[in-house]
Amino acid sequence: MELTAGYWIQKLQLTRHIEGGSYCRTYSSDLVFPQQQLPSGFHGARPASTAIYFLLEKGQFSAMHRIASDELWHFYYGDPLLVYEINTEGALKTHRLGNHPENGEQFQCLVKAGSWFGSKTKDGGNYALVGCTVAPGFDFDDFELAERNALLQLYPQHRDIIEMLTD
Question: So what's the pLDDT on residue 40?
Fold first, then answer.
């Protein structure tokens, strides 16, 4: 049996994500930090950690966005996934998630809190199934979807990536 994107979407009960692709939350820590114990940028109490499955199909992208927490990405199955990160200093890093280290791919990558980031499957790929672990835990109140023109004004040197990963 061929394990297609549709197979994983059904098997893992993934639904559409606001940034693109499909996801399902799989974990939320019972340990919760009150807002006053968190750094600025958090808008309420947060679980210590959360995790999701995330799947991108060919032709889809995870739109540029940023969150208040660090996000650790894990590769599970499918084709390589490219995660583009523009850090708070404006430097661009391309993380290559996959299972072929000889091609510069890795099983995990870290996107630091406050970085702008988005992703897409490597050219020619059909889909990538990954996971994301966020600490302190993710909440949509801490999520900011990039506006193309505003991001281009901040980082004109990354025009190609920004235009590829924004609407």
Answer: 87
